[in-house]
Amino acid sequence: MTMLAPWALTLAAGLAIAVPVHAHEVVGTGPNGGRVTDAGKYHVELVAKDATVDVYLTDVDTKPVPAAGFKGTAILVVDGKPARVALTPADGSRLSGKADVPLKPNPKGAVQLTAPDGTSASGKFN
Amino acid sequence: MSIRFAAAFSATLLAAVVLAGPAHAHGGHDHGAPPTPVSNSIAPRGEALSDAFELTAVPRDGKLTFYLDRFRTNEPVRGAAIEVETPEGPRTATETADAAYMLPAPWVAKPGNHDLLVTVTAGDVTDVLTVSLNVPDARAAAPGAAMAQPSPTQDALTAASTIVGGLKDRLVAKDPVLVATAAAAFLLGMLVVVVARGRRGVPAVALIAIAITLTLGTAAFAHGDEDHGKPAPAMPPVQGAALIAPSEATTDLAQRLPDGSIFVPKPTQRLLVLRTTMTEAGTFRRTVELPGRVIPDPNASGVVQSSVGGRVSPPPSGVFPRLGTKVRKGDVLAYVTQPVQAVDVSDMRQRQGELDQQIGIVERRVERFKKLSVTGAVAQTQLDDAQSELTGLRDRRAALDRVRLEPETLIAPVDGIVAQAAAVSGQMATPGAMVFQIIDPARLWVEALSFDALTAAQDATARLADGRSLTLAYQGSGFADRNQAIPVQFAVKGDTSGLRVGQFVTVLAGTDAEQNGLALPRSSVVRSGNGQDIVYEHTTAERFEARPVRVVPLDGTRVLVAEGVGPGKRIVTLGAELLDQVR
User: Fold this and answer.
1) Contact B229 A76 (CB under 8 A)
2) A contact test, residue of B130, B191, B193, B230 with most A CBs within 10 A
3) Domain of life here (chain B) (predicted)?
4) Element spanning B190, H or E
5) pLDDT, tens digit (0-9, with 9 covering 90-100), for B410-450
6) If you measure CA to CA, which chain B residue comes closest to A19?
7) CATH 2.60.40 is right for the domain spanning A25-125
8) Thinking of the domain B253-297+440-583, which architecture would CATH place it in?
């Protein structure tokens, strides 16, 4: 016991730390003033103004991800009706699209992204 | 010895601080996929929630089946429009007969992660849901199954190695700083122990320890970010499931999972008619059940009685009102003609003759006076007196006739319908006998016998034998004992159709005692094998978990959950006992 106890304690501490942090929803405000949510391995920031929908793409470290090669679709609920907005890469990390109807400042909806490698990811805005 | 322990503790603490650093510094969140559960015998599926809907997507044979339910009640939603953003563009799923929605989706056969955007419109509610479908690679799954059939010890080892592997994964994949931190902390711990055994240079060691901790800790904190997109660690292999060859077609069967939760696929949920309710904390009055009886409202009902004995005859319409006939207040329902006794008849004849005689005499006198008064032989006053006498005599004669002819009319005292009728033409009615009972069917009361003193103005409900319930408004209670209980009267509020006077009902009335908790229907609580009361919580779309609860009775239909579940949980209210049978 005399020799074992310290090592056992050390080991126990190591195991205790190994318990991973729990997952949770993310909602926040991004650098462009929009709401941020998770979409697969990316973070997306949704900025809706009038009929224009801008989606900014960032990665793990909230570093911008070049939007080139990405495809996207946003479906936003306007006055109880869904509005489908196709998103195309614009400058930098931005994907942009135009809706048929003017949007409210913080619409409910979701964004789906297809990366250049074909994987898809989606994020929900409540 | 104490120093050795102190050293061990400091090493532990050091390791804890250094390793825990990144975890605390982790300012964000995990981007892990939702736990892909269950066993190999269950087809892959995806689900999504919103505050209105619960959507489950099951890919099978190149088709995608969506099951849409209400989030709170688990009721299938019919007639909704489901539009899906697929890799081939937007597509609309068609509704099938069993309230599912089908979408041909050949692309779903491709293994990997499919993220779908589903727009649901049901009635005036529109929701956009994101569904993540993880279709496993059939070939990749095969080797895993080849090493199947592990013994229980192997099982435990596998589980342990998975946890350790997860940590290793996390450490290796994360960044070298973290690994270095962990390693340094470990070495430091060793160093401390070694030095402590020598019982030398303890302050120096402490200094070094602090210095290293600060350096490494700062480095760890500098990585202020989160863990992204790591595939969720595979579930520990399930022994039962491992026995099933993965090549077999996956059949979705309701089953009890190794963690004790119950997996019930959506089609089975619909067969079992599983319904849920959202728990809400509240204050409830304890209620008592009282035996009661429907009575007519005393202000809207009446009886029709004859005040005299006599022969009953129909009203002018020629027919007596039948049972159920609508009558208005003042309607003539029947006549009662008094019979005239023989002695009375002779008496009346005598009087009649006398009057007729007198009328004859006075008539002649009036004639004579009329002629003479013109000449002035008779005073005008004498003529007037004679005329008044004649009028008086005629009135008396007429009244005598009327008394013989006029029967008593029986009239309806209130508006309503004829509830009882005892009139037969020609029947002799006795004085005070009830001929008709009139009741307003829209105004009924309930009289209950209570053994407790009820709170005044306390509303109650009544339950009928067929399960219907009535809302009652308290009217008053007696003060005199009847069968060692107090009669309490309530007015029935709302629809009274189908009720009849005298019908027995069960009255549920509140008492003064108040209780706090969550009210659930009695049917949601089932008794588990060990005799414990449990309820089933609907945790995810197709999973139910048993929760032991402590319940106290509330009223006839509900129980109060005092402990075991909190508010805001979806608890199965219908079909809980069927769920309990799932093995």
Assistant:
1) no
2) B130
3) Bacteria
4) helix B176-198
5) 889 999 999 888 888 888 888 888 889 999 988 899 998 88
6) B167
7) yes
8) Beta Barrel (2.40)
